[in-house]
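User: Modeling request: complex.
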Amino acid sequence: MEEKVESLVKVKNKLGLHVRPATQIAKILQKRKAKVTLTYKRQSVNARSIMSIMILAAPKNAQLKIEAQGMDAKETLEELLNAFNKKFGEDG
Amino acid sequence: MSDLLEEIILKGAPISGEIAIGTLFFLEGFSDEIVPEFSIPVAEVEKEIGRYRRAVLSSREDLHDLQLFLAKEGSTEAVSIIDTHIQMLEDPFMTTFIEKKIRLQMKNTETIFRSVMNDYEKEFSKVQDSFFRQRLLDVKDLSQRILRNLHPRKALQTEEIPQNSIIFTKELVPSSTAEASKGQVKGFITEIGGITSHAALIARSKGIPYVANISTDTLYPHKGSKVIIDGQSGSVIVNPKEHTLEKYQKQYEEGLKKMHSTVEEDGEGTTTIDGVKIDLLANIENLSDLDLLIPYNAEGIGLFRSEFLFFGKELQNFAEEDQFILYQKIMHKAQGMPVVFRTFDVGGDKGNINQYEPEPNPALGCRGIRFLLRNKEIFVHQLRALLRVSTDGDLRILLPMISDVAELLQAKELIQEAALELRSEGHEIADEIPIGCMIEVPSAVMVSDHIARECDFLSIGTNDLVQYTLAADRATQEVYLFYKAYHPSILRMIKRVIEEASRVDIPVSLCGEMASDPLMAPLLIGLGVRKLSCSPRFIPKLRKMISTLSLPKVEEVTKEVMKLENADQIETVLKEIFGTILLTDE
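Assistant: Request completed. Predicted assembly structure:
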């Protein structure tokens, strides 16, 4: 069943949503089918694209909107929120 | 002499390492060697896309190799950077987007790719945050790699960089930092580049001195001059005066002594506690690597990858005479130590052959000995050049990708013919030149008895053997995890080859990643391997591991390990038993 879910999330990493977190997001989405969009400051990008995420240049504490659409939208969103909250496995 | 020139002292930002003394070498940055724009006829569009995909695929292979290399060096930082580059290759930006544009605009890939990247750069330059902006360099680096792979022969060859170079360039890209060989590149100077740039992280992990914030325009007139850089204070001294040079030379040597005290101890060779001798040999790819033989106490060259000598050149135009001169240099540098010289291990895709038809699956295609036997002229040129240096030292010839004894017999015939011909031309050829076979195809393992009877030594190439046996390409993301060197099937194959070789009493060496893994060493010795060939930098670690082992112990462990059913278990057991030995000094 086609689902559409969204949520707001805060960037907790010290260096913002830089290359490594972006890489983690792309890796998570490789296993998922949902179409995922990240929006920051009215700019929306495909979350599968590291290069696009970098253009957002979201610093620490930036508030982003995640939208997921597709069969596994809910699980995908949960996994992403979890990863944001765990700072993508980084210390800072 | 040098006192006549004015000493120039420049102050930059210290990024990495200590002292380096060398010659200024200017490295062209992102060369804008523009391939002209042209249109693609409809019928050719898919072919053009195929060309793009292949370039992306080759880029991925490059990056995987680089990553494995960095992983073995323990530079976790650098490994994760390369991981990002690999992920970026999957970026819709780099894949579907470019392909769609090629279909839509029907222009050559270079034109499309450049315009997409330019748009991206423009978008990126709006970003205010300097930390983020620096990351553009990763994207540039990656796109440069893809463009290079569209035109492999136009790539900047690292062997063009002279020995002892201090490289100066506008900005340093991560990959050229990672690929820099320590013999050639002594240090880096750049105009742009911060302490957190990826290139800086890699330089630091490799211990290469690096100073940033120095204008390239200031340095450009001094190309080829002597220079000292101090990666700790950020000083760059061009045309140093005699006493300045002395002072830094002393500092440099002290630093080196510190480093070497952990590297070399004696020239006695490597033995287990109970005196079993293990030969540790070096895998070599270019002339400058040869300088590492002595500092790392290698006992010879276990694998000279000759195809690296010609990269970028047209293989069929690589004249016998040019090869002869190169091979002679190699033999002299080896100073009588054994040199196992592997003939060109290329496929049609790498040999720059005109009549080359793209193969759907190059790994299973016409490569190694198959290629050589089909392109006899190329093979014979190389054999002749090799035979001519056979009296200059201890030369051995190794044949790549043997999958059947018939290939060996054919190659032997060609070698005999070449020797006869050369003698009749008045050249002196050694009476006995050992001929060996790479065992890297599973069929060769199964018929290793046939092969062993017909040659003088065997060399197990584990990288390909693992790939072919487990049907897992380590460069393919999806099956990467299946690529397991510790797999029981691989261990059984090694065992079998050693048994067959010992029946006819010929030596077996092992080259490939596995040989450089100190945890594998006990197991390999337990299986009967007595020669390991790896990149010289791994030799100290291996020596240390081996000197703590005793044969009865490793044979017992090996017997137990051979009963295990999966690779992870095997790795865990080896880590438990031998892992602590590795930890004592690090």
